[in-house]
Design goal:
Elements: E1 3-4, E2 7-8, H1 33-41, H2 45-52, E3 56-61, E4 65-69, H3 73-78, E5 80-85, E6 88-93, E7 101-108, E8 124-130, E9 135-140, E10 145-152, E11 160-163, H4 169-188, H5 202-216, H6 221-229, H7 242-265
Parallel strand pairs: 4-8, 7-10
Antiparallel strand pairs: 1-2, 2-5, 3-4, 5-6, 7-11, 8-9, 9-10
Helix pairs in contact: 1-7, 5-6, 5-7, 6-7
Length: about 270
């Protein structure tokens, strides 16, 4: 395991925040679906264990951490690999498992007009080289994400032209928003909020995260009710509905952590 410039090759810990402190979950309320899927997956204990054993190395720190990682059975099983950057787990996805990954081909640009220069983008988070089939490039501002599966030219050799091929109406619908996000990033050097709608389930999902983290930390269901809903929820109103409410939060979280995260991506 190596460390360079705030990037740790392997993520080596639990993502669980102090579930008592609502402020620790403030970031989650603003996450896009890409980010939310990662929040659920990193809470899977088997995923945590598999990621700790992943054969990866930090190859360089050039505009962003560049990580070389073997595409193992673990990566294919989960659909993603995970690293630690600036103290937080960051996921890189295989495009065949996550429709929010955009496949593009790059070739050297003859002029800067209409080209994309990866070196100039402050939101460039990490570059992952996996196997021999190109590399995965993640842009993120912490809440919003855009991941490319890039083939062709070295993205750090200079400005490049990008080409994307879409096949079928399903890809036309899913990938068109990703192309608009990429264009907005190129033009404005930031993510446009209008292209990242607020996740309508965020409020409930935050409570599910906290309930799950509480159970993982050894808290009782009454403890969770007290922290999330107040003392009365764990006493006078416990049998009037809060027992069931907490149980549902935990059950729903378990379903997503144990595989339902992939079903979320099918809703894209």
């Amino acid at each position: 395991m190596g460390v360079m410039g705030g990037a740790q090759v392997l993520w080596n810990g639990s993502p669980c925040a102090d579930w008592h402190d609502s402020a620790r979950y403030n970031h989650a309320g603003n996450l896009d679906l890409f980010g939310w899927t990662g929040e659920w997956l990193v809470r899977n204990r088997q995923f945590q264990s598999d990621m700790k054993a992943l054969p990866c190395r930090l190859a360089a720190e050039q505009y962003a951490p560049i990580i070389e990682c073997a595409e193992t059975e673990h990566v294919r099983q989960w659909g993603a690999c995970c690293f630690e950057i600036d103290g937080r787990p960051v996921l890189c996805w295989l495009p065949e498992r996550n429709p929010l990954v955009l496949k593009v081909e790059a070739w050297p640009a003859q002029s800067s007009s209409g080209s994309f220069d990866f070196r100039d983008c402050s939101l460039l988070k990490v570059v992952v080289r996996m196997g021999t089939e190109g590399q995965y490039i993640l842009f993120s501002d912490g809440a919003r994400h855009l991941q490319l599966a890039l083939s062709g030219s070295d993205p750090f050799a200079g400005p490049v032209n990008l080409r994307c091929t879409l096949c079928g109406m399903a890809e036309f619908e899913t990938k068109s928003i990703l192309l608009r996000r990429l264009s907005g990033l190129h033009r404005h050097q930031r993510f446009l909020g209008s292209l990242y709608p607020v996740e309508r389930r965020a409020g409930r999902w935050v409570n599910m995260l906290r309930a799950w983290d509480g159970i993982e930390a050894g808290a009782s269901r009454r403890d969770i009710a007290t922290v999330l809903f107040g003392q009365r929820a764990a006493t006078e109103d416990w049998d009037a509905g809060y027992r069931t409410r907490v149980q549902r939060l935990i059950r729903s979280a378990r379903r997503i952590v144990e595989g339902g995260y992939l079903k979320l991506l099918k809703q894209v």
